[in-house]
Design a protein that fits this description.
2 copies of one chain form a homodimer. The first copy, chain A, contains 9 helices and 8 strands. Chain A is an alpha+beta fold and 193 residues long. The termini of chain A are far apart. The structure holds a DNA duplex (30 and 30 nucleotides).
DNA sequence: GTCTTGAATTGATCTATATCAAGTTCGTAG
DNA sequence: CTACGAACTTGATATAGATCAATTCAAGAC
């Protein structure tokens, strides 16, 4: 295998909008390798997100802060796209952090390069539309989830839907992701076990 | 003025991706008039959203239910797009309701027609990508808001950001939209006034 | 106009979850 | 291997907001 992260990327792109050989050659050449060590920040509040990431290995977390406390918005690992989308898409300063919470191997494309690819290829433009749609569907579902379920229900659903996340992400971060304190999550784990 | 709802639509489209005269003529011809009387349902759980709406006048609400209680997800009025996006985009059954809460005049385009326009015109495809991006940015922001702020803060922010919504939408719906009970919203109104 | 029905308010409780305060365990740097 | 700080757990208490219940208000039907 030549460079499996690109193979994984191609698979994810083709699933939404197949590219020709030629398009893929050009498009994939714009994605550059990037690594980040555990605890390294890739973006901090006030900065504009310049890149769109595809994570091959490692774990990324996106979080904001409200006063003292951190609010985790999401995690990425295992051949998934990552980044602070709203800042990337709007090219306005973020108020979120993007941080590696394990050593990460990634590839990434710059905003300018991606826009250029959108201009150049309708198939890439389509992928962009459909990717945004997928993200929108995901965020909408999570929004309803967060509102509809109690702490216990949310915990059980996470166990069911993303059992592996517990291997990658410390409980205190998951607690904040689920909108509860670490103490509450700890008690739920005991109770449900 | 010929038909102002189409003018408003054109303005919103052009803001993200300008269409040529020719493209607009074809594209706009796919949007058909639709009215809905107060309290009429445009979509119910189990159905697949077949249309994407542009609301000229009236008010639309999107909501789900958890047991007995309704959970309001959003409202549309005044030259805004509406619909149950996740079902429309995925063409899978929804678990939400789409309901007119005032007499509505709208135009709408069917899923098949819109996909056809995406195929036909790169500029429309681009509009689709950018529209999804805008929606994604909005939903992401609201997600962080819902998590970061207390009931009182959320109420104050709504007053500040969408003062007009109080004219259109009954308080009990707004309460559920803000993630609190009508009693709590009522007390906050008294307190803040 | 009055009747009806749901919306909004107000007050009295209740409860899920937060907060505060110790422990205990784990991971990792040396 | 040890030790130090962070992560996690556990218990006691506090509280924002929910729930329950009664009253007032307002808009559409007749």
């Amino acid at each position: 295998m030549e460079d499996s992260i690109y193979t994984a990327l191609k698979k994810r792109i083709d699933a939404l909008s197949p590219l020709t050989e030629e398009e893929w050659t050009d498009f994939s050449s714009k994605w550059k390798h990037k690594t980040a060590a555990k605890n390294e920040y890739l973006l901090k509040p006030g900065q504009v997100e310049g890149y769109f990431y595809f994570v091959g290995s490692g774990v990324i977390r996106v979080f904001g802060e409200k006063g003292e406390e951190e609010i985790n918005v999401g995690f990425t690992y295992d051949n998934e796209f990552s980044g602070v989308y709203d800042s990337f898409l709007s090219q306005k300063p973020t108020d979120l952090y993007l941080q590696a919470i394990a050593d990460c191997k990634m590839i990434r494309i710059s905003y300018a390069d991606l826009m250029n690819q959108f201009d150049k290829y309708k198939s890439v433009e389509r992928w962009g539309r459909m990717f945004n749609a997928e993200m929108l569907i995901g965020v909408s579902r999570r929004q309803v989830e967060a509102r509809s379920f109690s702490a216990e229900e949310k915990f059980k659903r996470l166990v069911k839907n993303s059992p592996h996340i517990f291997q990658f992400v410390p409980l205190k971060h998951l607690a904040s992701y689920l909108g509860m304190t670490p103490e509450t999550l700890s008690r739920l784990r005991k109770k449900v076990r």
